[in-house]
Specification:
membrane, Ccc1_fam, single chain, transmembrane helix, Ferritin_CCC1_N
Length: about 290
């Protein structure tokens, strides 16, 4: 066998044994039908590993870091996120499988198995938190847009970190309850809506977490402008984090979602900068 093809097979073999361990660990943690499906897929991955081993004549160790990473992702972000992240890796692998299937006849069977995996996994995805992702988006987006603008305006109007922090925290917490209540009423009004109470809780929690991240720099730094800079950095981090989460779970384009959120949030913030500056000059407020 050509050395280049053999090296590719070894890389695929490592990928298969890694995914075997990931699916096996997830199968032990997930109960019921989902766990059985994961167990079945893990067996297929091990079968693929052994097919490649016939040609490479080598035992290959899994990538233990990736095994740990995907299992950790399932704990933090849920099974849906971890599986979709895995699927992105499998799509790349399948593209490479096509290149060498002429050299290894069994690769047709492997490609068929991988396609079946995708269908099974799509049917497997049914997590509660994913059903309420629109509620989380609502809470997070509203907090980012409203509070970044509010904090920016207050910074220029008051120029006092503690006062801005207190005002922002009170405004943010009050707004989180208001937004949660609005989401509850909105879901109650829809016929095929999700559980209204849970939807409102997800919205409120997402809002409050965002509020805390945006306000906390004002409690740390005495200089309001430095606080604002770190608030902006925190806002960008939140946008990156959530854009990545949504892009993986809902298979959307990360760049499009990220720049959309960034543009809206910072557009409102810039307008609030101007309003705060004008208000300070117009009312001659000195604190």
């Amino acid at each position: 066998m050509d050395e280049n093809i053999k090296n590719q097979l070894i890389a695929f073999q490592k990928n298969e044994i890694t995914e075997y361990h990931v699916y096996k660990k997830l199968a032990k943690r997930i109960k019921g039908k989902n766990g059985k499906v994961l167990e079945e897929i893990s067996k297929d991955e091990f079968k693929h590993y052994n097919i490649m081993k016939k040609y490479t004549e080598k035992d290959v160790q899994p990538n233990n870091f990736l095994v740990f990473w995907y299992v950790l992702l399932s704990y933090i972000f849920g099974l849906t996120f971890a599986l979709n992240a895995m699927e992105k890796g499998e799509e790349k692998a399948q593209a490479n499988y096509e290149e060498i299937k002429n050299y290894v006849p069994e690769f047709e069977e492997i490609i068929k198995d991988e396609n079946e995996h995708e269908k099974k996994l799509l049917g497997l995805i049914d997590e509660e938190k994913i059903n309420y992702i629109s509620s989380m988006v609502l809470g997070l987006n509203d907090a980012l847009v409203e509070l970044t603008g509010t904090l920016a305006g207050l910074t220029f109007a008051f120029q006092n970190s503690r006062l801005v922090a207190l005002s922002g925290l009170i405004t943010g917490i009050a707004a989180s309850f208001s937004m949660a209540a609005s989401e509850y009423l909105s879901q109650r009004a829809e016929k095929n809506a999700t559980n209204p109470l849970k939807a409102s809780i997800y919205t409120g929690i997402a809002y409050i977490i965002t509020v805390v991240l945006l306000v906390v720099p004002y409690f740390i730094f005495s200089n309001p402008m430095i606080s604002l800079i770190f608030t902006i950095i925190n806002a960008i981090i939140v946008i990156i984090f959530f854009s990545f989460f949504v892009s993986v779970v809902q298979e959307k384009t990360f760049k499009h979602y990220f720049f959309e959120m960034l543009t809206i949030s910072f557009g409102v913030m810039i307008i609030s900068f101007v309003i705060g500056l004008i208000a300070r000059q117009f009312f001659h407020i000195e604190i």
